[in-house]
Amino acid sequence: MEQVQLEMNQVTLTFGDRQVLDIESLRVHQLDRIGIVGKNGSGKSSLLKLLEGSLRPTTGHVKKHIEFGYYEQLSAPKVDVHQLDGELSSRLAVPMDAGEQMSGGEETRTKLAALLSTYYEGMLLDEPTTHLDQAGIDFVMEELSYYYGTLLLISHDRRVLDELVTKVWEIDDGKVTEYVGNYSQYVETKDEERQKQREEHDHYVKERDRLHKAVEDKKKHAQKVGKGSKGQPNANRMFMTKDKGTSQKGIMKSAKAMEQRLEQMEKIQAPDIMQPIVFHKPKALELHNRIPIMTDRATIKIADRLLIENVSLQLPLGKTIAFTGHNGSGKSTLLDYIVNGQEGITRSPKVKFGVFKQKDFRFTKEMSVYGWMKERSEQSEKTIRAVLSSMQFSGNDLKKSVQDLSGGEAIRLVLSQLFLGNYNVLVLDEPTNFWISKVSKR
Length: 442
Fold this sequence. Notes:
- The protein is α/β, with parallel strands linked by helices.
- 38% of the residues lie in helices and 21% in strands.
- The protein has four domains: 4-181, P-loop containing nucleotide triphosphate hydrolases (Rossmann fold), CATH 3.40.50.300; 191-229 and 239-264; 290-347, no CATH class; 352-441, 3-Layer(aba) Sandwich (Rossmann fold), CATH 3.40.50.
- The longest helix has 48 residues, at 183-230.
């Protein structure tokens, strides 16, 4: 049997009055390849931080028997790119001169180069393909496919989970359940479990309703028998009253037995139905110009890096336009140039942008979810709460610190702000990062 490399015993993790994790026992063995899944905010990143050691459990113990490398989801690179492995940096196309002007994809490549420059017996990876183009994702897949060590991985990319993991840890309501197989096998098993639970719930409801009706029928029958005994002739009164009374008691006893069966029935809940995220369409300000945005031979440089040269574009009203390209090719920079109206950009005076930037999910100020939104919106409390609820923020979620949000929750919050504004042009730079696949497809 492979040796235990990491273990958790009687671990709980609580933020304020909210219990995030409640783990009786977990073991990670040598060469395990585990994918961690769950809804946004379920505690996936918190679990990795507990395993890595940067977060301490409220109760219980976490023991590591080997050293793990850790890729953190939301952090910016904290390395000198000139100190990284040269060959690895070259293969990952790490920019040597970007400084703080790195795109999201370049940041991811830099963090990966820093992690992979050292061999670890185990790795804890929290969304390692975020912001990467296809070439970058392929590189990560190849590296991790040949990695000889223990791997624990969080990813919103189904392909990554299908090809790299052989076990799945599902976090649901603070509990962790282990499934053997890759992500597709996990989904198949979950579908079978839900179908079985649905059938058992339907059977439970049918039997419960049958017993309820039977009890009511018995009680009505007993009442009729009781009334009937009062109308018997006087000659046989004593005999008939005893017979009817005995019959009534028997019926009531049978009804009581059925009621006890009802009380003792195991309640089987219906399978949970994931509430959909509802995207509120913001009220668009009036815009009549058929071509509200144009670029005329625009050239974009960052320091000595030429990103875009002599680009002429027309962006028609009412169209959805996708910008594609390799990491570092200038997609985010071009969007910034358009929004800021730089040289070579012509915009209608009535254009009002609603902007989601690639790194907007990084919060620097300690605030509650509701407080953050209230500070940035002129809408009523009722409207703010309604929009937040439609984006799956309700109850205690509104009191949660924005700095404690997962990547997916943070992006949902920032997008919620857009839905409370009045815009006629939306600019969205990587709005689906960290989101589970079912949401991203909507």
